[in-house]
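Marked as duplicate of an earlier ticket. Keeping the data here for the record.
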Amino acid sequence: MPALLIEDFLQTQGLRLQKDDVAVAYAAAKAVVDMGEAAIERPLLWHCSDELVLADFFAETAENTLLLKKIFMALDSVFSRSQGVAAAAVYTLMPSENRLVRLTAQGVALEAALAVDEFGSQTYLAVRTAQSAWMNIAADTAAWAAAGELFCSRNQHGAQISVPVCAENGTVLGVIQVEFEHQLPESDDTPATEWVALALALIEPLKQLLNFSCEDETL
């Protein structure tokens, strides 16, 4: 099943990543998700700020806490072994709210919520990915900004990767947003490989958190 999952994602997204490399990274991420039993303080899982209170979107049950713990640990695992990553976050898409809601993050703080609208798609790569279900790689965000592709002031340096987390029927469940300190060399597939693998490993936790089944047309 993982092999078919990986092959389908790579073909759908038109990616030329090595399947074996993705499979190894997927196995590592999935092992962390399956373990999901570290002691994590409640404020780190159920974050609360003036911008967003996560418990307003999901019931604070033992089951949901465990799912958030799995997502937190998986992101932390990939982030901790990645080079040059300034920030990374896992968002879930809430169509009823028409926005992306941040579940967990590492590094420099990213937005807790992003409106999924025309302005958002022009400003945030994660929103564009949520709208299209296409993975976006901006190896040089300054070039994207100069071309008028991204307007946010934070998009003036470094690089970004935005990966959709999709159910089997293609529905976007969430987005992984990664922002790098420096530009990415076009020939280096390693960063994309790790984050694609994480996106695949997070499909089941996000489906469970959202109570999603593939028979659903919308969440």
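See parent ticket for discussion. The chain has nine helices and six strands.
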